[in-house]
Structures are given as structure tokens and as C-alpha cells.
Amino acid sequence: MDHASLCVFRAVAREQSVTRAAALLGRAPSNVTTRIQQIEAELEVPLFQRDTRRMLLTPEGETFLDYVERILNLADEALQMVNPRTPAGVLRIGSMEATAATRLPVPLAQFNAAWPQVTIDLTIGPSRSLVDAVLARRIDCALVAITGNHEWLAPGEVDLVPLFHEELVLLLPPGHPRVEHPRDVRPQALAAFAPGCTYRMLAEDWISGQGEPAGRFRIHEVRSYHAMVACTAAGSCFSILPRRVLALMPDAACFTVKPLTTATTSLATRPGYGTPAFQAFRTILETFADADGGSSAHAG
């Protein structure tokens, strides 16, 4: 299992096709197939299901892919650190959806203009899964919101650079009366992302902190802010989101909005990580920063 073979396996796993992976790698499909067969023979387990039209991973293949991603990412990091003359290689960035939509477009464009030889690999997800990906070396850095209530993260486990303050607002259906307390909220469901989203946790903290029982509202999980806003517009849910995201939505002014809290978005990395590509990206991000320190959320 040399470096080239692991690259072949990763390409097939991502593309779910030998033909597409071969075209991506500039190899003959027969060569790609042979490489996969050699890896499976060495591991003595099948890595792909053979009963589908796509190359889908088996459970063993999923486990193997996680290790392969970390091995190849670490190898790329090592090459960048050994020859650090200029930013190069791949920079794997994680980001919350809101940050990617409202904070990253201009910095990423500036970075690409300055360092076109660096390939940006952007992953979107909630804060907790992004931090887990940083620690597992699946990504290099992540823009996350980490509040004071994060028992899942050990002190010093990641380095955090505060960058952006985000005003979070409670979004209620159009025509909803003003809200001062959770009991004033008429919808019986909170539209939110999956567990691991810091903003969802802050909404739940607001509800429980006002003395409301944990089961007062059910959670309606959605996958995008557009879906969140649509559910709220329909009157079936309320939600929490950054004001900057709401400003991007059509007809945002028709909703009832309550300022709820302020959270800080920070750049998270593994302690000691510092490839030239990352350092250049961090420098550009800091020119757009509006945070003055601290990465915890506080009531607003």
C-alpha cells in the first residue's frame, strides 16, 4: 500500500466510479482496478460492494477510507513543512454554513488570487463535527463557534483564533407578536441543524435557562438555512440564525425578530500546525476580523 495506491483508493471512494477516478488521476481504468484489487488482497477484505452499479464502500472500506484520508493529509502536510518556501499543496478548510456564506467569499477570492497554486478543499458542517475532523487530521483548520459550555472539548486540545462576532437572532413567523420569554413563542418546534451545531445549543440553552422544560419544544432538523427560514415562514417552527444570514434572505423584513445572543467564530487548528498555506490564509482572514478576543458566547 504505497502512496500512489492510497491515492487511487481515495479517488475511487470519492467518485464511486473506476472510470471517473481513472480520468481524474490520468490513469487507465484497468490500472485503477488492479490497484484496488491489490489493496483488497493485502487487507484480505472487500473494500467495495460488487453488487451495485456504483463503487460503494463496504463498512471495512469506510473504516479504511478514514485512515487513508489521514495518512495522505499528513503526508501532504509533511511535504509543505519540509519545504516551506511558499504556500503550496492542498489546504483543507472546514466552515459552518453561515460563515461560508457570509464571511468567506471575499477572503477566499483574495487567497486564490495571491496563491493560485494552493488548492482549497472546503468542508461544510456543524462546529463539533468540524473540530473532530481537525483533530482526526481529515481537515487542517475550521471556522467554528465554541461557547463556554463545551465539555466535549478538552482545554488546549485545539488552538483558537477569534475572528468574527455574530449577532444571533430568534426568527419567528411573520406577524408573530414580540417575544420576551420562551412561553411567548407560539410554534411548537425549533428548526435547527443536527446535534453538534453551537447555535442550536444556544437556542436550547435560552429555552432551558428561562425555566422552560426540556420537552417544551420539539426539534425539527433541517439541512440548510433556506429550509430553516421556509419552515419558520410557514408558521410551524421558529429558529435561531446569524443576522448576517437573515440579511441574505428575500423578504427578511417580514419576520418577527428578537436579538438573542452573540457568538464568536474562531479559526481552530491543531496545536503546532502551521503550513505556509495555512499561515497565508490566516493572515488574510485576520484582515477581515472584527472580534477583539475571546471565543465564548454571551447573552445579548
Can you walk me through this structure?
The protein is of the alpha/beta class. The chain has three domains: 3-79, Winged helix-like DNA-binding domain superfamily/Winged helix DNA-binding domain (Arc Repressor Mutant, subunit A); 88-164 and 265-299, D-Maltodextrin-Binding Protein, domain 2, CATH 3.40.190.10; 166-263, D-Maltodextrin-Binding Protein, domain 2 (3-Layer(aba) Sandwich). The chain is built from eleven helices and nine strands. It has helices at 3-15, 18-25, 29-43, 59-82, 97-102, 105-114, 127-135, 198-209, 225-233, 243-246, 276-286, and strands at 90-95, 119-124, 141-145, 159-172, 189-192, 218-221, 238-242, 256-269, 298-299. Strands 1, 2, 3, 4, 5, 6, 7, 8 and 9 form a nine-stranded mixed sheet that branches. Helix 8 (198-209) links the parallel strand 5 (189-192) and strand 6. Helix 6 (105-114) crosses helix 11. Mean pLDDT is 89; it is low at 293-300. This is HTH-type transcriptional regulator TtuA. Transcriptional regulator of the ttuABCDE tartrate utilization operon. Belongs to the LysR transcriptional regulatory family. It comes from Allorhizobium borbori.
Topology diagram in text:
Layout: H1 3-15, H2 18-25, H3 29-43, H4 59-82, E1 90-95, H5 97-102, H6 105-114, E2 119-124, H7 127-135, E3 141-145, E4 159-172, E5 189-192, H8 198-209, E6 218-221, H9 225-233, E7 238-242, H10 243-246, E8 256-269, H11 276-286, E9 298-299
Parallel strand pairs: 1-2, 1-3, 5-6, 5-7
Antiparallel strand pairs: 3-8, 4-7, 4-8, 8-9
Keywords: DNA-binding, Transcription, Transcription regulation
GO molecular function, one term: DNA-binding transcription factor activity
Pfam family, one: LysR_substrate
